[in-house]
Structure to design on (1406 residues):
């Protein structure tokens, strides 16, 4: 019986629960990865330490705890590649930055092409990535077969693998380690972490938002930074702002622990398979997004069945693996599948939302860019293209084509 | 040494001996045994090891509550991580013991897995007494009601099946089963575990069929009402070294006696916190185990169970606890000694029972909330999910009812709640043996600042093992509450998620594999073209090119396409265009609708004419294009791109029904009803004239964008003079059952002219030379009709069409928008690559980022002149004709010159032949 | 499994239907008269509530008719159904 090696442990101390104070310079609403990273960079890069992160449930218990941990930057448009590559670079030094393990494993992400149209779009993206200075490669089916021997690259599958794009520096990380690492580092710099503190309303005065009512009392602030993923629309609604967001259930699942068979992340938009084998040995798979609005953190079972059919088609060896657990998160999706970062129509209020299925990989990147935006009260250059007004001008950043589900 | 008792065993059939292999060694068993019972019978208690610690582990439970005994199946193709306590034996079964991690066997899984869909008025989950009472009542109340009973055991009865036939429970069970037999609408599924409650009365269940053709089936059950009679799971107790082979749950140990006639120990200590443990002690004693001591954490005890123990001379120690265990030094590491507060005992079995956890998983799946009950000493259902109210009831032990077995309640002594956070060396107190997680891990999580049960779960991995916390989950929550000094109800459990037991990927895939994983659509003339290499276009298989055999072998793509292009440009070609989406629009107001959904004007189209149209989304971006023919005053036939037919039909329905329901319009998909053969090339008129000699096909009599009904080779047909190649061309539409006949007739009539079949690739080359875009290839959802140079197709007369307002926005009017252009290689011969990015000529490709001005959307090695050319989207492209750029693929530049999108017959002189 | 009560065909699995987001968003009578901001609001902004939601569904694999459903976006309970979706 083969005995396995343990994963590295956590630091002896992570973070404590703080009591809310009456007032802060900045209140970040949403204690997920983005909110925690934003608070950390506000303190670290901008010296703004009188900051509270308000979380309505348990810290990092939303999409941060529910995603499939894929990290990559190979997006089509310059604006997207810009912010995601900024993030990927931060990932590469995050362990030193936070002085904790995040288990970022740069095992590469492969996006498969199954028809001539996929090939065209894949090459288009690889070429755009290369010219943006990203590590991107086009691989043919034989090369893919060598990279991922368990993938069926013959013409047997209903939708055979004809090639694919590969980003070697992409990979996965351990989401809890990341969230807790940011929380620990932020708190060490003075940030308050407040759990079980649900926002119930805001106080405004003219063009300013002055305070927030919560289940743990009223809190006033200088600046407000929303970072609440699937619940952003609800929060903005409390400010009287309607955002172009729809919140959908997105499911994921995990298998039992298995001996290593897959050391690359494999994604296939065409047949909806996103799979990696995590550090402990479980297969982690993202499923499709339900079409309807849903906040129940429960998805439709048929989505799981369809995904398993596609997975077994591509990876015959997965046939006998078992689904141990399924779950769902709530993803906030914009009309162009790109995020919204920037000012709300108030002098001192900002929003970071609309990441859809792509939020985890952006955690350090958007944290630093959003913190910079809030600190300087103007859009960081990498955030500027993602401002809300693009929906009015029509200057969208349409990432549907290259990443129908932008994991 | 066999531990099989000479008689008894409700689940085994001694007339059917079975031999299985464990780690290569044969083990004798009986039909009905599980791998766990067979190994216990063979006195081989070591079943696995700790994933990280390597510590020996045995069987703790008798069903899905077991947290350790998972094995790798080697036979029958193999399967990782299967619960030994539920895996039934059969001849040839070979398993291997594993340490917390399974192995995926190589090779295809050719097992058949079926998915079944069923409906029921009432679905009863659990066929124990509580479930059977509910089922019988429901079926008797509503005569003929469809009642479905799903039970995970091999037979109905649950716990009552393990009680003597002459007991009150045994008698009631017999009575219920008899009544059930007489009820018409009742269906029973045994060996069927409901794995998920998905809301709105939907259950998903796994049926094991060890002897069926499909070994496993997945059931989707849609029920009006759901009765959850899922029973309870026995809960362990904590102490140091609680994970050795020989430490078992007490009721499970007793169940091994009654179900499998296996005596799990010769000498035993029993430690319990509730009456069921005492009952188990009596059963074990009666079966022949020497019970050296019974420890009960409760301080007082009276009633028949205490008397039964006393009557058997068994010492009952109240307020006593186990403090630790010793194991053997040999490989098995089995239990040899138990240390307690009342002394140490040399035994080979420690039977523990910390209480019963109501099995609330299915209640929780759709969002039901539980509460802690001191009376039950467990979490019980509290508030059902809002969507389940009025649909779902929980009965029996699952609801915390401790009187499921008749006669229990009168004598029941209240259970004790024991969660100790000081149970000895914390590194040796296992709170999830499958994940090797200990009390020490839990304390480390607490010391790190974590207090939420969800955080502690993630920190320690408790509850993430193959049993998903069914074994130790609630116990760990209780210990955490003790550690935090908070009430257990405040700490709560983690969320229960489907599936209740693991489901294999292949089972979930069911029959949707291979060809069936996504339906294949082929044209009605497929027989005639099936020899060609196919291109996948959505679900369609379309002929890609038609290679000919030559002296050098079969032509490759380039050679074949060059020949096919030449044929169409100089002679005549034929193509199966049946996959084109076809929508019949009928009604007085079709013209109004078309004026709104197309960018150009349609209502003025005369009967007998065809018009090309572009469709935008409300955002002004091109979503489809195609032609529409006016068949009559009220009937119109629209064609769409192959991949977009369903979406266009749905869009038309949506606009019609939701915005303009007053319009008199009916929409019908006729894609599959009409087959289409396109005949293209300067000789096409001759071919059509041969096929339909009774009509005048001259340009004067039958002009461009005319259509008419005319029998073609005797087949009723619509003939359309439209062209996607720029050449004189005809589309022949016939009812689809004539598809093959039409294909044959065209081939025959064209033979004198050397008619050449061509595929999608040639069609693309021909249209690209004419600058006709393919929606989805030369557009990507960010392209307006103006960007495509199709301002001519955008009406200036109409006050509105879908997308018009968006085209007036600032960004849509930027002069530097990406626009469709043509490209040719500067050297006249190098091939341009689709997907190449366009940058300034001579740009430094090592100084990132390199500014990109567009990309190549379509590229072909040779057009009519044998030279490579391409289409591209280029920033401000229309004003840049003549400019030289680099098309970069894989960081290799190719100098290209920008041209207009049309590279062939710009004047359109060839369309009349 | 989300079940949608089609007013014509009865309750069916949601897989038979296409989703149409918020109900009651009418195509503007005169798009040209709208500001860019108003037009953008029509194009892109839809209600997205956590709670009861009046939305449109299309029985794509059934009667091919659009209708309104009032559904709770957390619990998936359905309260009212209305024929037609104009």
């Amino acid at each position: 019986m083969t005995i396995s090696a343990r994963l590295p442990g956590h630091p002896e101390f992570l973070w404590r629960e703080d009591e809310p104070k009456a007032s802060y310079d900045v209140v970040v609403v949403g204690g997920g990865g983005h909110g925690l990273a934003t608070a950390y960079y506000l303190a670290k890069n901008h010296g703004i330490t009188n900051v509270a992160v308000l979380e309505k449930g348990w810290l990092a218990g939303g999409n941060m705890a529910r995603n499939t941990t894929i990290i990559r930057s190979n997006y089509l448009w310059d604006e997207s590649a810009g912010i995601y590559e900024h993030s990927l670079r931060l990932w590469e030094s995050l362990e030193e930055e936070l002085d904790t393990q995040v288990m970022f494993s740069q095992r590469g992400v492969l996006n498969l092409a199954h028809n001539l149209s996929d090939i065209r779009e894949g090459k288009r993206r690889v070429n755009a990535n290369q010219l943006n200075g990203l590590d991107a490669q086009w691989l043919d089916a034989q090369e893919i077969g060598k990279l991922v021997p368990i993938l069926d690259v013959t013409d047997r599958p209903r939708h055979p693998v004809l090639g694919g794009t590969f980003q070697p520096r992409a990979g996965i990380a351990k989401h809890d380690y990341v969230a807790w690492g940011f929380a620990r580092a932020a708190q060490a710099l003075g940030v308050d972490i407040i759990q079980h503190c649900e926002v119930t309303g805001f106080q405004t005065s003219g063009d300013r938002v002055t305070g927030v009512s919560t289940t743990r009392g009223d809190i006033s602030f200088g600046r407000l930074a929303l970072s609440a993923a699937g619940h952003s629309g609800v929060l903005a609604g409390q400010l009287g702002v309607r955002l172009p967001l729809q919140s959908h259930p997105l499911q994921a699942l995990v298998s039992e622990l298995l001996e290593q068979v897959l050391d690359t992340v494999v994604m296939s938009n065409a047949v909806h398979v996103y799979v990696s084998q995590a550090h402990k040995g479980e297969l982690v798979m993202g499923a499709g997004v339900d079409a309807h609005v849903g906040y129940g953190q429960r998805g439709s079972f048929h989505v799981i069945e369809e995904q398993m059919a596609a997975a077994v088609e591509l990876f015959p060896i997965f046939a006998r693996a078992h689904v141990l657990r399924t779950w769902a998160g709530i993803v906030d999706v914009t009309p162009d599948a790109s995020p919204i970062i920037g000012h709300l129509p108030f002098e001192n209020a900002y929003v970071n939302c609309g990441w859809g299925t792509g939020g985890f990989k952006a955690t350090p990147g958007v944290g630093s860019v959003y913190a910079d935006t809030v600190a300087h009260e103007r859009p960081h250059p990498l955030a500027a293209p993602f401002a809300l007004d693009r929906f009015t001008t029509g200057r969208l950043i349409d990432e549907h084509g290259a990443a129908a589900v932008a994991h | 040494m066999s531990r099989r008792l000479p008689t008894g065993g409700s689940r085994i059939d001694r007339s059917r001996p079975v031999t299985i292999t464990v780690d290569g060694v044969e083990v004798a068993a009986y039909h009905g045994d599980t791998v766990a019972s067979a190994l216990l019978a063979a006195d081989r208690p070591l079943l696995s090891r700790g994933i990280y610690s390597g510590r020996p582990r045995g069987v703790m439970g008798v069903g899905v509550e077991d947290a350790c005994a998972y094995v790798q199946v080697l036979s029958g193709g193999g399967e990782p991580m299967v619960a030994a306590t539920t895996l039934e034996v059969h001849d040839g079964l070979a398993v291997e013991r594993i340490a917390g991690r399974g192995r995926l066997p190589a090779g295809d899984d050719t097992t058949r897995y079926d998915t079944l869909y069923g409906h029921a008025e009432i679905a009863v989950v659990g066929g124990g007494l509580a479930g059977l009472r509910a089922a019988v009542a429901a079926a008797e109340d509503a005569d003929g009601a469809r009642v479905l009973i799903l039970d995970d055991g091999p037979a109905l009865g649950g716990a009552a099946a393990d009680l003597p036939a002459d007991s009150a429970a045994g008698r009631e069970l017999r009575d219920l089963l008899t009544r059930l037999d007489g009820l018409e609408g009742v269906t029973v599924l045994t060996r069927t575990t409901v794995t998920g409650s998905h809301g709105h009365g939907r259950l998903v269940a796994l049926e094991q069929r060890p002897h069926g053709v499909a070994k496993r089936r997945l059931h989707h059950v849609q029920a009006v009402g759901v009765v959850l009679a899922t029973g309870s799971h026995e809960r362990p107790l904590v102490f140091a070294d609680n994970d050795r082979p020989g430490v078992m749950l007490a009721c499970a140990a007793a169940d091994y006696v009654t179900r499998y006639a296996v005596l799990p120990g010769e000498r035993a200590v029993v430690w319990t916190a509730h009456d069921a443990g005492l009952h188990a002690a009596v059963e074990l004693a009666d079966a022949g185990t020497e019970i050296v001591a019974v420890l009960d954490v409760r301080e007082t005890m009276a009633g028949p169970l205490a008397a039964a123990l006393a009557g058997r001379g068994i010492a009952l120690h109240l307020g006593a606890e186990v403090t630790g265990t010793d194991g053997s030094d040999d490989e098995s590491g089995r239990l040899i000694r138990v240390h307690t507060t009342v002394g140490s005992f040399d035994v080979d079995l420690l039977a523990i029972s910390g209480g019963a956890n109501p099995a609330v998983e299915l209640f929780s799946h759709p969002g039901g909330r539980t509460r802690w009950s001191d009376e039950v000493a467990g979490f019980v259902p509290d508030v059902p999910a809002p969507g389940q109210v009025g649909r779902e009831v929980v009965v029996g032990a699952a609801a915390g009812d401790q009187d499921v077995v008749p006669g229990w309640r009168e004598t029941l002594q209240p259970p004790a709640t024991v969660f100790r956070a000081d149970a000895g060396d914390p590194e040796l107190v296992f709170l999830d043996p499958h994940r090797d997680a200990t009390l020490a891990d839990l304390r480390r999580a607490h010391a790190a600042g974590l207090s939420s049960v969800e955080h502690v779960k993630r920190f320690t991995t408790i509850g993430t093992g193959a049993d998903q916390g069914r074994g130790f989950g609630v116990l760990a929550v209780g210990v955490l509450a003790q550690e935090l000094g908070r009430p257990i109800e405040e700490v709560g459990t983690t969320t229960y998620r489907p599936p209740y037991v693991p489901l294999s990927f292949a089972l979930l895939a069911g029959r949707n594999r291979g060809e069936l994983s996504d339906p294949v659509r082929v044209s009605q003339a497929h027989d005639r073209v099936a020899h060609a290499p196919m291109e996948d276009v959505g679900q369609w298989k379309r002929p890609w090119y038609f290679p000919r055999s030559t002296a050098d072998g079969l032509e490759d793509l380039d050679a074949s396409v060059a020949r096919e292009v030449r044929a169409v440009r100089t002679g005549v070609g034929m193509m199966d265009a049946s996959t084109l989406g076809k929508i019949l629009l009928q009604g007085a107001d079709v013209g109004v609708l078309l004026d709104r959904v197309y960018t150009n004007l349609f209502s003025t189209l005369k009967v007998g004419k065809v018009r090309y149209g572009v469709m935008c989304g409300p955002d002004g971006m091109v979503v489809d294009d195609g032609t529409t023919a006016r068949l009559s005053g009220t009937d119109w036939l629209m064609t769409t791109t192959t991949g977009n037919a369903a979406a266009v039909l749905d869009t038309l329905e949506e606009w019609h029904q939701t915005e303009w329901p007053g319009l008199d319009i009916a929409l019908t998909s006729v894609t599959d009803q009409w087959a289409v053969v396109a005949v293209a090339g300067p000789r096409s008129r001759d071919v059509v004239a041969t096929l339909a000699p009774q009509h005048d096909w001259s340009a004067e009599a039958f002009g461009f964008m005319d259509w008419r009904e005319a029998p073609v080779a005797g087949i009723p047909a619509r003939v359309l003079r439209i062209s996607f190649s720029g050449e004189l061309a005809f589309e022949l539409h016939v009812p689809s059952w004539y598809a093959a006949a039409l294909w044959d007739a065209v081939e025959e009539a064209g033979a004198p002219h050397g008619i050449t079949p061509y595929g999608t690739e040639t069609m693309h080359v021909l249209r690209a030379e004419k600058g006709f875009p393919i929606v989805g290839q030369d557009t990507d959802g960010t392209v307006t009709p103006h960007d495509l140079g199709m301002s001519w197709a955008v009406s200036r007369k109409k006050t509105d069409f879908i997308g018009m307002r968006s085209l007036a926005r600032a960004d849509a009017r930027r002069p530097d928008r990406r626009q469709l252009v043509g490209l040719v290689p500067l050297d006249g011969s190098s091939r341009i690559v689709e997907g190449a990015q366009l940058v300034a000529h001579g740009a430094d490709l090592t100084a990132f980022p390199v500014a990109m001005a567009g990309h190549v959307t379509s590229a072909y090695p040779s057009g009519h002149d044998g030279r490579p050319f391409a289409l591209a989207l280029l920033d401000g492209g229309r004003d840049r004709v003549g400019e030289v750029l680099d098309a970069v693929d894989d960081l290799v530049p190719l100098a290209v010159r920008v041209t207009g999108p049309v590279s062939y017959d710009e004047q359109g002189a060839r369309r009349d032949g | 499994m989300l079940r949608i009560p089609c007013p014509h065909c009865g309750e069916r699995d949601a897989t038979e239907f296409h989703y149409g987001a918020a109900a009651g968003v009418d195509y503007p009578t005169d798009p040209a008269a709208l500001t860019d901001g108003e037009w953008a609001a029509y194009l892109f902004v839809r209600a997205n509530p956590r709670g009861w939601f009046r939305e449109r569904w299309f029985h794509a694999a059934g009667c091919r008719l659009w209708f309104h459903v009032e559904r709770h976006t957390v619990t998936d309970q359905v309260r009212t159904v209305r024929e037609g979706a104009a």
About this structure: Chain B touches chain A through 98 residues (CB under 8 Å). The two ends of chain B are 95 Å apart (CA to CA). Residues 13-107+237-353 of chain B form a domain with the FAD/NAD(P)-binding domain fold (CATH 3.50.50.60).
